[in-house]
Specification:
Elements: H1 2-17, H2 82-88, E1 100-108, E2 111-119, H3 122-133, E3 144-151, H4 155-164, H5 169-176, E4 181-188, E5 192-206, E6 242-244, E7 249-262, E8 266-273, H6 282-293, H7 297-305, H8 310-342, H9 344-354
Parallel strand pairs: 3-8
Antiparallel strand pairs: 1-2, 1-3, 4-5, 5-7, 6-7, 7-8
Helix pairs in contact: 3-4, 6-8
Amino acid sequence: MNGDRSTALSNSNSHRRLQPQDVSVLPKIPEPKYRHAAPSTPWPWIDFNTTFSETQPFEPNESIDSITPPWKLYPKNFNWTSEQVKKSKMLSNTPLSTNCLIHKVDVDNGYFVNETLSVASDSEKVAFWDELQEPVSGVPERKRTRIFFINNLSSPVLQMLGTSFRIGPSFFSSLTNWIPSRHQEDLKTAEGDHITIVLPFVRVVKDGDKSAKSTNGASSASLGGMIPPDKKRHAADFRTLLYLRSTHHVLLKDLLAIHMVRTSTSNTIVSYHPPVERSKDSAERLQLLVLKTGDSPCWSEIFKKSNDPTFLVLVMFWYVLYGWDETFEVLGPHIDWLVSRLGFGFLFSLRNWHG
């Protein structure tokens, strides 16, 4: 019995040596917070131990400088104080000056039209703001749906989208902090509503691709054993990517963040995509997958018969489900590989523990 135990420990230590790198040194996604401390939902306070804010909420009749674009008041014009904005990190986590790529898709009567915009310079910001103020045109008896797939979100684009479509700031505070969220708001019977869905999920990236990153930017190439063996500290951390040595895959944590605005005249979907891969644009990837549904005889017929944008959201959910399906497909053989290396003695003890 002691021999089995020593063999199991030896095999276990051997498995530890196979770990490619100490994952504790990799950048991590934000620590999840499920209270209003982020804040992520419309709770009546920020924290129990927070003192009363001296900054008063925005007054609708407050005078506004004619030179200042109206979108720069967001989220203050939603009665968010500077203290709330600072605590949520929705603006500090989104760079002010960055090249924000916006992949658009217009869906009308089953036809899909795509376009990509770059919003970085002042002139591009003005042009994008002017475009948002134009109504989504279409045949009067039909409603066109416009989807914005956002890559490399900047704070000006965040403020423009929030102002134009009256998106609650809790949507942006949830996605910048990776907080799961789902709720309906601003419901008006026979007119429309707002639906928010923020859903973390896991998908698979081939290690040979060398493009996977942890959510703050560490490449999967860094998993190749760059740290000396004597410096490794093997710790499991769910906030970083997971390298599967047996199948040469990387399990990557990703985020689906959708805000859908339904009105009596048009529909708009804003889809945010964090930079989880180095050389690939996940926003463009989902845009292409949505465009592919237009080639499907079944789905194109659905879009011709119905202008309900929920079907487009369902297509995006398919992307998440497909990611989980691929994850379990590679995770199963990897678990079998781990079990085979632990030895019979460990398995015998494990069976007794669960007996």
